[in-house]
Amino acid sequence: MAFAAFSTTAAPSSSDSIKKKSPVALLLLLPGILYLVLFFLAPLVSLLLTSFKVPAEFGDIGEFSYAFRWENYTDVISAYWPHILRSFGYAITATFFALIISYPLAYFIGVKARRWPLLQSLALVMVVAPFFISFLLRTLAWKQIFSDESFLVTSLKAMSLLAPDAHVTGTAFSVIFGLTYNFIPFMTLPLYTTLERLDVRYLEAGSDLYASPFHVFRKVTIPLSMPGIVAGTLLTFIPAAGDYINASREFLGGTGTQMMGNVIEANFLVLQNFPAGAALSIILMSAILVMVSFYVKKSGTEDLL
Amino acid sequence: MTTDTFAESGADLELVGIHKRFPGFTAIEELNLTIPAGSFFALLGPSGCGKTTTLRLVAGLEAPTAGRILVGGTDVTNQKSFQRPVNTVFQSYALFPHMTVLENVAFGLRRRKMADPLGKAHEVLRLVELDHLASRRPQQLSGGQQQRVALARAIVNRPALLLLDEPLGALDLKLRRQMQLELKTIQEDVGLTFLHVTHDQEEAMTMADTIAVMNKGRIEQMGAPQELYELPRTAFVANFLGQSNLFTGPVVSTTSAGVAVDVAGHKIVVPAARAHRTTGEITIGVRPEKLTLHSAKPIHDADVNVMGPGRVTDVSFSGVSTQYLVEVPGAGTLIVFAQNMTFGSDVKFGDEVWVSWGVGHGFGLDDDPADAPRFEADFDTRSIAAQRHLEGA
Prior knowledge:
The complex is a heterodimer of chains A (305) and B (393).
Chain A: H1 15-19, H2 23-50, E1 54-55, E2 64-65, H3 71-110, H4 117-128, H5 135-146, H6 151-158, H7 172-196, H8 200-208, H9 213-224, H10 226-241, H11 260-270, H12 274-299
Antiparallel strand pairs in A: 1-2
Helix pairs in contact in A: 3-7, 3-10, 3-12, 7-10, 8-9, 10-12, 11-12
Chain B: E1 13-22, E2 25-35, E3 40-44, H1 51-59, E4 66-71, E5 74-75, E6 86-89, H2 101-111, H3 117-127, H4 143-155, E7 161-165, H5 173-190, E8 193-198, H6 201-207, E9 210-215, E10 218-223, H7 225-230, H8 235-240, E11 245-254, E12 258-263, E13 266-271, E14 281-286, E15 292-294, E16 304-317, E17 321-328, E18 332-339, E19 352-358, E20 363-364, H9 380-391
Parallel strand pairs in B: 3-8, 3-9, 6-7, 7-8
Antiparallel strand pairs in B: 1-2, 1-4, 4-5, 9-10, 11-12, 11-14, 12-13, 14-20, 15-19, 16-17, 16-19, 17-18
């Protein structure tokens, strides 16, 4: 199945073939390398250089000249530290909820539904089905559902479960909800691929060795599905931390829920403060890189399977 | 959970009126079985005969449709597998890949909150001579080593009852022999009750005190290995436990000494004490190694059965012995094992021979001769395989 693409198992090592310096291999690699240099490395270098630029003397708004102004970084951190913290806070919360929702779902599809292959395929299609519609449209739909005049909100207010002057959109709740909702398939599919291969004989062995169902789950099922948990949380956390759709005012966010993605967008497209936007982007990338490498090292995926 | 204690010794296992039905077929029909404490009991049968299901029922991984399971006199039928004083050595070993060998062995001890789990794990790893590999992962070990870890992981818990599900199946012949002896020694040392499921008759005979031969969800015959081999009760046992030459014919005379049967014109005598039936059409048999080949018709002797003349249709040399197939008109093909006492064999392909054996070596079966006298492929095996596939477990 195409979902195997989400699997974390490394491709068989091909160190032998790399040692042979074949010109054909280099030739085949060339388009890929060129692509990466042109569309990844060059923009990255340009971004890094931009982040140190200073406003051009007597220049217009949006005109900058090359310099090494590292204070750009301290400036954006002091100006936007709430957004930085909020980005990671929202992303971690959304990742947590996506995991809590996706794990039982993936376990059901991958383990419990094995006897019924048709149900298994159907459930998988349902997990992927939201992709048939653009996620912008789906997020807009949630904005309608959560809007002040919507059936849901008026009903909640009628039942006094919500204060009469309260809003749902533009709150931390609606942004985290949107992030969780949008990233559930990215969490479920890698979890499914590991759980689908989970050998239930290990669970039987655990039960045979006096472990209650809870202990079997904690000591056997969770460690054995760790590759899926790591892949799923990374696939959710990384894009969620940089997301600027859910938190934007046009969608589920408000002024008090702006994330890093939104301020980067604002600096680049509205304020035309390119060095600030670039510095924020570099900070976002480095923070994610540090957090992810720490997480991967900590969860020790290389020891698993 | 409070701190647990080890079982003092092995416990009896009692299965009372066990039935196990899966949707579409019956795996076990009316099974009654008592295994005394401290014994090494083997359940022997072809794949799909219900022996693994029996084991899973005892382990608590499967619930019986009807009947009761008692371990040491306590009814455990309604207990979950983690509550039962039983441990299993799985056919696939099922060693946890995410733990070291040591942690695998200590797993059960930790769950039971035993004191000093790592010390006890090291101790049992020394017993199976693997303590030097304690910090490795199971997948870094060879098949034989994994098997010993699986065994260590089970016996470290000192279960009242140890279940072995064809644990030697994946090993090569030499390692298998070695492990059979080691298992037997360990069982005698620790005094646990072993229930060993296997389809390898030689393994069952080497290791077990008592063997129960299972077929199609029932126990065909139960007894000491020698007893089963010398005096099989049914054609299935006669052919599953070693090989047999079986003949069917009407009883012509019955005396206190023996039952004479007419087999294609040959009068074959079986001792009355070794015949389960003495009237009508009966099936009798003799083991291939009890037969002697003669190149001339032997002199008549009341204590010896003679068949022939026949023709040798196949000679195969297997080191210790040579196997001959002898076609006797009317009686079918006989298998003869002859010890290689001299250089080469005296009898060659196509030779005309007579076959003889001592009357005392024959046995009479309890089967209805209407049943196929020879062991045939068990068609239930396929339905069970299909079922396993459907279950996906």
